[in-house]
């Protein structure tokens, strides 16, 4: 309860001080050095790149032709979910350039073995099909479970990504 001697102080920002928003990083500066993490958010169709914990790039992505849910078996058109590592780099890809991830993992292989099917594999972050003219992009979710970005984007990502880089794929 407030008494007569209570001093009231304004709540909120000081009116004498300008309010500023946190600055968004400059996502147009070239990436210098290696990145340490790639975050893929399937629902948002976004791939976010981090270097030393800082956001350095965001790309719009395409996914497998049946994007909802986690990958279960070969041919299901789904993109796997979980935490992976880049385990190979392909500069002779059918999709400009590509970065492979270590799917399937042990639990995926066990589930598939127990279910009597193949878990699939060869999941990559890659560019556009080589037969498409430069500057064009396939519309919609069209891959067989991979993550696709533009060719100039995969060039930038390929140059900054090393074997062992973490890749997290969220629903």
TrEMBL record:
One BP annotation, GO: peptidoglycan biosynthetic process
Xref: CDD domains: YkuD_like (cd16913)
Location of the L,D-TPase catalytic domain: 36-170
Active site: 126 (proton donor/acceptor), 146 (nucleophile)
Keywords: Cell shape, Cell wall biogenesis/degradation, Peptidoglycan synthesis, Transferase
GO molecular function: carboxypeptidase activity; transferase activity
Chain residue ranges for the region called Disordered: 1-30
Signal sequence, renumbered to the chain: none
InterPro entries found in the cross-reference section: LD_TPept_cat_dom, Transpep_catalytic_dom
One Pfam entry name: YkuD
Pathway membership: Cell wall biogenesis; peptidoglycan biosynthesis
Coiled coil: none
Family to which this protein belongs: Belongs to the YkuD family.
The protein's name in its UniProt record: L,D-transpeptidase family protein
